[in-house]
Design goal:
With 214 residues, the chain is an alpha/beta fold. The chain has a single domain, classed as 3-Layer(aba) Sandwich (Rossmann fold), CATH 3.40.50. The chain is built from eight helices and ten strands. Strands 7-6-5-8-9-10 form a six-stranded mixed sheet, sandwiched between helices. Strands 1-4 form a two-stranded antiparallel ribbon. The chain has a two-stranded antiparallel ribbon with strand order 2-3. The longest helix is centred in the first third of the chain and has 13 residues.
């Protein structure tokens, strides 16, 4: 799923450098899915660091045409991937839309914001992938509301849960990421961002996150 190991290690190094990775085993974070997690990855902070933002954008944008051909549109998944998705679209000189988790309750009641012509070839941008539910929800909206042809998905980071990988496989969705959880842990331990106890805890959590008890 990752593009290559060198890029994955560099991505992990940069995310750690700007404290995009938060650890709190004593008071775990609660994800939208309800999962309790001792780790939280906030990739939106990348937008505040121009040199790191430029690295992430170029590394995500450059392989897109090779992997899937030149798309008609780049689509960002709200809200985390709106910023990075728009910059990738600008880098490639392509139109951009973003997809809300659900249609607005007022106004035009859009779920997809921006101009999306029917049957457009679309590459979806995510900031990170956990359970995959929000990603697949966006893909569903693009297909149903936008009548889009989804070429693939590019993300900054994935936790690599088996459930998400199976879900993507079932939807015949090709996903590529810059980094993943295993390499992040390696880099964090190597640079003493994690001590041995934290490193082992995070490996244990990853094995069964839905039923993890701190």
């Amino acid at each position: 799923m990752i593009l290559d190991k060198h890029t994955a290690h560099k991505t992990a190094e940069l995310l750690l450098q700007i404290n995009a990775i938060k650890l709190n085993p004593q008071e775990p974070f609660t994800w939208a899915s309800g999962i309790k997690s001792p780790i939280y990855c906030d990739n939106r902070i990348v937008l505040s660091y121009p040199s790191i933002r430029n690295f992430i954008v170029s590394e995500m944008a450059k392989p897109i045409e090779t992997l899937w051909g030149k798309p008609d549109v780049i689509a960002g998944v709200a809200t985390g991937a709106i910023g990075i998705g728009a910059i990738i679209a600008d880098y490639l000189g392509l139109p951009f839309v973003y997809v809300r988790p659900e249609p607005k309750k007022h106004g035009r009641k859009n779920q997809i914001e921006g101009k999306l012509e029917p049957h457009s070839n679309v590459v979806v941008i995510e900031d990170l992938i956990s359970t995959g539910k929000s990603s697949l929800n966006a893909v569903k909206a693009l297909k149903e509301e936008g009548q889009a042809n989804i070429k693939g998905m590019m993300a900054i980071f994935t936790y690599g849960f088996e459930t998400s990988e199976k879900a993507f496989e079932n939807e015949h969705l090709t996903v590529r990421t810059l980094g993943n959880y295993d390499i992040l842990l390696e880099e964090a331990y190597k640079t003493s961002y994690l001590n041995t106890k934290e490193f082992e805890l995070l490996k244990t959590w990853r094995k069964n996150p839905a039923n993890w008890k701190h």
